[in-house]
Write a structure and sequence with these properties.
Elements lengths: L5 E6 L3 H16 L3 E3 L6 E6 L4 H17 L4 E6 H5 L1 H7 L3 E4 L6 H7 L21 E5 L1 E2 L10 H5 L3 E2 L2 H13 L4 E5 L7 E2 L2 E2 H11 L4 E4 L9 H4 L10 E3 L7 H7 L5 H14 L4 E8 L6 H14 L3 E6 L17 H24 L6 E8 L6 E6 L4 E5 L8 E10 L2 E9 L1
Parallel strand pairs: 1-2, 1-3, 3-4, 4-5, 6-9, 9-12, 13-14, 14-15, 18-20
Antiparallel strand pairs: 7-8, 10-11, 16-17, 16-19, 17-18, 19-20
Helix pairs in contact: 7-8, 12-13
Length: about 425
């Protein structure tokens, strides 16, 4: 019986990266490696992001930190930063750098380095905070749009989708493994298409032929929203949460960013969602400091976000990325002004969260509970169907259970609820 090699995974960036890390962890577990968290691993796998220079810096910092804490460990860097600038991660201390194109073959790359295989652990995922509550499932990859600021098409390639039968089979497998919620994710899932099957047909099939208890779509573009797609939300298993990318509430900015919708298109998409899906949470991404952004254009975007009344706003400062159109644009905004605008937008985001949560005080809601916030505290955290973060206290384990709660007060960026029954 061989040595149990311990592998720790860490993921930066998007839900697609989370889905791919989850798949890699399964592959390693099936091959006989023990999945662990924190220090003491024989192998560290970092799934990197390169959407901003801050994401790059975080990756290099983690590689150096692991190298300092555990000089004997093998550090593997994969993902988008590894695809874009492998030499930078190697210089930081990564012993193996594997880009997106070879990510799914990571085990083969490892074998080529003559790392001995460990004995079989029957594919059990045992650590890294992993509980069989929520699983991320990749259905699509790549993007054909080449927005002016975005590095993703350069590191993810052209759009391609997984076969519908393969996706549905994987949904069944993860439900059988005990997961209560599946998140369908990709670079641009609204463009899912395989042999004539689009996103609507894929979701229909997953609902029809599997016993998935909760299904969530990770992110959509305004142009993806249609009455035909939204009609599926008559099925209560679909989460009442839409992450709808915005980037700017100014038409002039959207044109310079090379986005494929207008402010009016966005308003229509939001209105349609709210018509079909009651109590829906609509969240978004918005960018500040894009080259040439005037004070008037920022104010226009700010006012638009106020008008839409989002459930939450993810705020990003523009970060120049190599090989993108925006990197060569005139009118680059200085960091001080970016920070001022970011802080103002973040204040609106926090106000939006509290305002949305307050609407549900006293209303019964169903929550899928995750782990204790702190081991032994009896305080659990979970997400409602419309993705409000809810907290409660329980003397009985709640992990991976659906329970009804009645929210009684605001708590942090969510709600504190009292349990009314198990669903």
């Amino acid at each position: 019986m061989g040595t149990k090699l311990k592998v720790a995974f860490h993921t930066l960036g998007c839900k697609l990266n989370q889905a791919e890390s989850e798949l890699l962890a399964r592959q390693f577990a099936d091959a006989g490696y023990q999945i662990v968290s924190g220090d003491g691993a024989d192998i560290y796998v970092l799934n990197t992001c390169t959407v901003t220079h801050i994401a790059d810096r975080k990756s290099r910092h983690l590689v150096r930190l692991w190298r300092k804490r555990n000089p004997q460990a093998l550090i593997i860097a994969t993902g988008c930063y590894a695809q874009r600038a492998p030499e930078e991660l190697a210089q930081a201390g990564a012993g193996l750098v594997v880009g997106n194109e070879r990510k799914t073959c990571l085990l083969d790359e490892l074998k080529n380095m003559l790392v001995p295989a460990a004995h079989c652990l029957s594919g059990q995922l045992v650590a890294d905070g992993v509980t069989r509550v929520r699983s991320f499932l990749k259905i699509q990859d790549g993007c054909n749009d080449y927005c002016a600021y975005c590095i993703v098409p350069h590191v993810r390639g052209r759009e391609r989708s997984l076969p519908m039968a393969e996706v549905v089979s994987e949904v069944k497998a993860r439900v059988a493994a005990g997961y209560k919620e599946l998140v369908l994710t990709g670079t641009k899932i609204g463009d899912y298409e395989h042999n004539g099957a689009n996103l609507k047909r894929l979701v229909e099939q997953a609902l029809e032929v599997t016993r998935v208890q909760r299904l969530h779509l990770s992110s959509l573009q305004p142009q993806d929203v249609s009455a035909e797609l939204l009609s599926l939300w008559q099925d209560a298993r679909l989460c009442r949460h839409f992450h709808l990318a915005l980037q700017s509430g100014s038409d002039a900015m959207l044109r310079r960013m090379k986005r494929h919708y207008t402010v009016e298109d966005y308003k229509k998409a939001v209105s349609l969602i709210r018509k079909f899906v009651p109590d829906v949470a609509i969240t978004t991404d918005t960018m500040v400091g894009f080259p040439g952004e005037s004070a008037e254009e920022f104010d226009e975007s700010y006012r638009f976000c106020e008008e839409i009344d989002f459930a939450n706003i993810h705020v990003f400062s523009y970060s120049s990325r190599p090989d993108t159109l925006a990197a060569g644009m005139s009118g680059q905004i200085d960091d001080r002004l970016k920070k001022e605008r970011s802080l103002r937008m973040l204040e609106l985001a926090q106000l939006s969260v509290r305002r949305f949560c307050r609407r549900f005080l006293g209303q019964k809601m169903t929550v899928l509970w995750e782990n204790e916030v702190k081991p032994g505290s009896g305080v659990y955290s979970g997400l409602s169907h419309n993705y409000i973060r809810v907290f409660t206290h329980s003397n009985e384990p709640l992990t991976n259970k659906f329970c009804s709660v009645r929210p009684v007060r605001l708590h942090g960026q969510g709600l504190w609820g009292e349990i009314t029954g198990e669903d």
